[in-house]
Amino acid sequence: MNTTTGAMNSSAFSPAHHAPRLLSGWCSTGATATLVEHLRRYGPPALGTRTSPMSVVEAVEAAGLTGRGGAGFPTGRKLRAVAERGGRAVVVVNAMESEPASLKDEFLLTVAPHLVLDGAVLAATVVGADIVHVCLPRTRAVQFGQLRAALDERRSARLDPVRLRLHALPHTYVSSESTSLVRWLNGGPARPQGSPPRTHERGVARRPTLVSNTETFAHLALIARYGADWFRQAGTPDEPGTLLVTVSGAVAAPGVLETAFGTPLDVILDRAGGRTESLQALLLGGLGGTWLPAEHLRVPLARRELAPLGAAPGAGVLVALPRAACGLSETARMLAYLAADGAGQCGPCRFGLPAVAEDFAALAAGRSDPDRLSRLRRRVGLLPDRGACRHPDGAARLAASALRAFADDIDHHLTQGACAAAHRPPRIPVPPAVPPETWR
Amino acid sequence: MTPATPVTSAKTLRIDRIACTGQGLCGELLPELIDLDEWGYPIVKDRAVPDHLRAHARRAAAACPLLALHLDAGRT
Ligand code: SF4
Ligand code: SF4
What we know:
The complex is a heterodimer of chains A (440) and B (76). Chain A has 440 residues and is α/β, with parallel strands linked by helices. Chain A is built from 16 helices and 9 strands. Chain A has helices at 35-42, 53-63, 75-85, 104-111, 113-127, 141-156, 178-185, 214-226, 228-232, 265-271, 303-306, 327-341, 347-364, 370-381, 391-405, 407-416, and strands at residues 89-94, 129-137, 163-169, 209-213, 242-249, 255-260, 279-284, 290-293, 317-322. Chain A has a 5-stranded mixed beta sheet with strand order 6-5-9-7-8, sandwiched between helices. In chain A, strands 3-2-1-4 form a 4-stranded parallel beta sheet, sandwiched between helices. In chain B, the strands form 2 sheets. A 3-stranded antiparallel beta sheet of chain B has the order 4-1-5, covered by helices on one side. A two-stranded antiparallel sheet of chain B has the order 2-3. The chains are: A alpha/beta (440), B alpha+beta (76).
């Protein structure tokens, strides 16, 4: 997989302000930065330079940093909520990246592990935690080894005032839910837990717990070093800063790149080498995301502009679907996987989602009729807001957006059977639709 | 919750979706606020419990065999 380093919205941005962000320059080699290299690039961690933990929270709030795991919750508010609980807290780095089309957390941890760890340690000192848990999927054994080496480097340099622990968790679609991590760290299965209690009140070891995405911690480390104004030089006033995106599908150079919020989607595709075929749609946000018909490709990657289209920047996943593919068949495979990989704890996941996946498969195969289609629509409408976590909501978003984006194909499939494209091999890789082997 | 909370304060429905096994009793006891899907799992039409339904709602919560239906204080 090729990796391009995004120039950050160069128009909005004078060269004097080119302090390094997440992926600037050196990462094109894909090599891991050692601790010495890391400190040479970014300077020392900002622990001593900010006067108090709360000044870090204020800087993060002023920067307007939001979580980069998909939900986009304001990071400053989360830090403050945990810090204000008082008592010994816990910090968890969520590197589970369960979205199959996302590679950005893995990539970031490979090239800049110390940036992520700096941010996590800093967050720990801010919220009063004495331990940082780093949660990786068990499938990423090489990454586990690299991170262990990075932790050894930090230990010999006596860099961190808190303990850092690595964990390898079972890799399922819902094991990246923050409550799954908490449950697993407490000795249970890596399955979502309903709230209350909320994680920031009572999480790991019943202590106030901050769980954030890998990339979020790296931004935090940079804000602590360079300040909120610097961070806001990229992005939009509503959504400042840059984010990592993973581009795949019909582009010449699929991979991870860094871009400013507000960058038009077609510019991002161009940075990923440009389209290799004419496109019919873009899947934004991954399997729990939204299909955008190709006529919307000039829309900026920003919450406000995407909201009317039912989409959001999410965790920065862009999948380009060529015209030659069948969007209905691709969606049917995704839904089958999401149905099989749900935790099977709640009604919508046990019955609703598998039923939706089955109806959709029939539609894709040309075995549906108008009655079955209206049943499908009704069942999709009943998925959101009825599980202990947002898994059914994501699947419903995908299904509903497919019904909108591929409306012409649906007519064709209903009246004349499956189109020719439905019989060609699938274009978007989706894991097999089998239930997880283990939750522990 | 503060001790000053009046006994007549607003209530909202909350379902523990993991505990719920979808036997649908709540939908039978409180059809004004709870529908059932085709598998018997609750669809909450309105989380806010109006005053005149409070006794019904309390009865439904007590009747849930899995203790999955809760009446929380306050409107959220
Ligand atoms: S909604 Fe699905 S994935 Fe989420 S907790 Fe319930 S069963 Fe598990
Ligand atoms: S009565 Fe309880 S277990 Fe039965 S459907 Fe309602 S909430 Fe679920």
